[in-house]
Specification:
Structural class: mainly beta
Order of helices and strands: HHEEEEEEEEEE
Number of helices: 2
């Protein structure tokens, strides 16, 4: 009887050791999602099974005077951006690309958009002797002190040699966008590296924030990534 109990105990111990050894030798299995569908799949399934909703519901439009020609130029503009001073809501600032001109265009209004003025944004010199450079992709923000910051990219072209590179720019105005005497150019990347694109700028306008009036700008690196990790302006 004692021998049988002893053998059963030893057999149980061997099985436990075997289980522990097997569990340690197997690689861990990570949790996996049970869904292989893209995030828009539910929408597709709903429309497939129910059809698209043809009635968006009642909508209203706000009527506010007539349209205003902000640029007052004969040539076209694109990628417009507009913002306002949080402390002076009738002070507006805007920006756009210039299709047939090199610099970015800035616009300013002190009467809520009834009338506008315009100004060119600074550009750095070309990278090559016969090259050109132009601005693109405007983004603007006021801080809580009324300073206006205008972000954009600069694209450098060599004559017949394609893109020499791209660079970020942030210009600063203290008069609501009438002038931009201060500009910072940074994060130049040559044509073989990534393409700086689509910047977005904002400022901390919270008067109680320890980072009040800090300015932040982010942009897309169309190929690769930023090698600097951030810039202090």
């Amino acid at each position: 009887m004692n021998t049988r109990i002893r053998l059963s105990f030893l057999l149980g111990l061997v099985l436990i050791l075997l289980a522990l050894t097997t569990s340690q030798s197997l690689p861990p299995v990570a949790a996996q999602s049970t869904s292989h569908d893209p995030t828009w799949w539910d929408k597709y399934q709903f429309i497939l099974n129910n059809g698209a909703d043809g009635n968006p519901g009642s909508t209203t439009s706000v009527s506010y005077g007539s349209n205003v020609d902000v640029s007052n130029e004969c040539g076209p503009q694109s990628e417009t951006f507009i913002t306002l001073d949080p402390n002076k809501p009738r002070t507006l600032a805007a920006g756009s690309n210039e299709i047939f001109r090199l610099p970015m265009r800035g616009y300013f209004s002190s009467d809520g958009g009834t009338s506008w003025g315009g100004v060119d944004l600074p550009l750095p010199p070309p990278k090559s002797k016969s090259g050109i450079d132009f601005g693109s992709d405007p983004t603007l923000a006021f801080d809580s002190s009324g300073n206006l910051f205008y972000g954009y990219i600069v694209v450098f072209f060599g004559k017949g040699n394609g893109i020499n590179g791209t660079q970020m720019a942030v210009a600063r105005s203290t008069d609501g966008g009438k002038t931009y005497p201060t500009v910072t150019f940074f994060d130049f990347e040559n044509g073989a590296n990534h393409f700086n694109d689509k910047p977005m700028i904002t400022a901390d306008q919270n008067v109680g924030s320890p980072y009040r009036d800090n300015v932040y700008i982010a942009w897309d690196a169309a190929s690769g990534g930023s090698i600097r990790g951030g810039v202090q302006l």
